[in-house]
Amino acid sequence: MQTSFWDNVRFGGGIGLNFGSGFFAGNLAPIGVYRFNEYVSTGVGLNFAYTSERNFYDSFVVGGSFLGFFNPIREIQISTEFQQSYVNRTFDANVPFTDEKYWVPAIFLGLGYTTNNVTVGIQYDLLYDRNRSIYADSWFPFVRVLF
After folding, report:
1. Which of 28, 59, 105, 119 has the largest count of CB atoms under 10 Å?
2. Over the chain, what is the mean pLDDT?
3. Which domain holds residue 129?
4. Which domain of life is it from (predicted)?
5. Residue 13: enclosing H or E segment and its boundaries?
């Protein structure tokens, strides 16, 4: 029996919200993945993020990524991702910083545990730069859902 291209495509991604006293961060990261076999998948993704801290700054990020997944066994996922993002950071007038607009790359290596459609794990950014990265740390957890 022959399968069509779309039988091997899965969609999903991640979503996040973080808020506190005068702080808000939200992100949306849809992805599309093509599964070659039970071990190897590849795909593309988009990322959108907005962060705001009252009386300090607003930041808007948009970007794209190429992803690769390897599952040596069904429950374990090794991932790689190249992400390129455009950052637009605007500081409030009373803050002694200059507004910024720049591109920032990231290369992630990740390890996750998969059950059904959900993978939970940790990633490391090989190109992490604490002054330019859109992430607070080079290590961070992730949750990825594919349907």
Report:
1. 119
2. 94
3. 5-146
4. Bacteria
5. strand 9-20
